[in-house]
Design a protein that fits this description.
The chain is α/β, with parallel strands linked by helices. Strands 3-2-1-4-5-6-7 form a 7-stranded parallel sheet, sandwiched between helices.
Length: about 350
């Protein structure tokens, strides 16, 4: 089946959760027999040659500002998809806004089957904007919308009661090697909603090493805070997605201290696949994956004492870490292997194309 995948940003220009997941997913789907074409932004001269196994169409846009870049991309990619609609069997829109609305317009004009996949921030951070909310409502009531966890489905259903929703999480590679390190690790952007300052405060007085893998606007502030608190933190910076595994292998507990807006973080699933127990805050899809007391611990966002206590209990108890880490890996193997994700997506493709015919 010829599947178009629409994603606004793409590696290596942007290395976020959605972008990394989309690249890996496109490769896995292509290798499993689908014909994949990814539509994404062009970055002009900063665009490296792609050796991906799938077709990659870079869409021109005016990068004067984030707004103009997004709006000109939306206009241009709509034209490209109208042109290519007869070649595609189905369009997979990564994020309900703005990509899902592009799919909605193209489908109205051509009949091309499409669906949207809410990734987290595209719903939680945009639903209060009246214009964006209107576009999301059109999509949610028109076609299948995938979400990454049951409690995200409940949140979306609360906003759009007539939405056609199904749950499908991210895919992840299952490594042959289990982690056997000594560090606490955080992997992700260094921005306000990630709550990294709560992790630093929770680790005040700990001798354990903290690996902070990622970059963002709060890096300097967080580095200074770590020094003032006496936390033994190493700020690694942004690394290629393929390099994250090497840092996970150095670790024994993964912490996700977010205060808002997570979908289903790739890095958390990767940590679990490495047999690392998780301490995470109960935001969006996280609480459905981290089974409290089984694969890790879940605490309330911003609750530093609870974060500290749960982290300390894992660091102090090797048997507990081992049990939870083993169960975390088993959970990911069962629910997030690429075989399972591809099988589910193939079923959705078949359902959408057969119903449109």
């Amino acid at each position: 089946m010829h599947v178009g995948i629409l994603v606004k940003e793409f590696p290596p220009n942007v290395i976020g959760g959605t972008e990394t997941q989309t690249r890996r997913m496109a490769s896995e789907l292509q290798q499993r027999g689908h014909e994949i074409t990814v539509y994404t932004k062009s970055y002009g001269d900063s665009e490296p040659h792609s050796d991906a196994p799938f077709d990659l169409v870079r869409i021109p846009n005016w990068r004067y500002s984030d707004f103009t870049s997004t709006m000109t991309f939306v206009l241009a990619v709509t034209i490209y998809l109208l042109r290519d609609s007869r070649q595609l069997d189905v369009l997979q829109c990564m994020m309900i806004y703005p990509n899902g609305f592009v799919g909605y317009i193209v489908s109205l004009a051509t009949g091309l089957p499409y669906f949207a996949w809410i990734r987290g921030g595209d719903f939680y951070f945009m639903k209060e904007n009246p214009a964006k909310r209107w576009t999301m409502k059109r999509v949610a009531e028109d076609t299948l919308v995938l979400v990454q966890a049951e409690n995200i489905r409940a949140d979306v259903r609360g906003e759009f009661p007539d939405a056609r929703l199904a749950v499908l999480g991210n895919g992840v590679d299952i490594p042959a090697e289990m982690a056997d390190g000594d560090a606490v690790i955080y992997v992700g952007r260094l921005k306000e909603q990630k709550g990294v300052e709560h992790l630093l405060h929770a680790m005040e007085g700990f001798d354990d090493r903290l690996l902070v893998v990622g970059d963002g606007p709060r890096r300097s502030e967080l580095e200074s805070l770590a020094v003032s608190l006496g936390v033994n933190a190493e700020f690694v910076g942004e690394v290629e997605p393929e390099a994250v595994s090497s840092y996970l292998l150095e670790s024994r507990v993964f912490v996700l201290p977010s205060v808002a807006g997570e979908g289903l973080p790739n890095a958390m699933l990767e940590a679990m696949a490495h047999g690392i127990p998780v301490v995470a805050t109960d935001v969006a899809g996280v609480g459905n994956v981290v089974e409290n007391g089984e694969t890790g611990f879940v605490v309330d966002p911003g609750d530093r004492p609870a974060l500290r206590n749960r982290l300390k209990s894992l660091l102090d108890d090797e048997k507990l870490r081992s049990r939870m880490g083993r169960q975390a890996r088993e959970y990911v193997e069962e629910r997030h292997s690429w075989d399972r994700i591809e099988s589910a997506l193939s079923a959705y493709y078949e359902r959408l194309t057969s119903s449109s015919g």
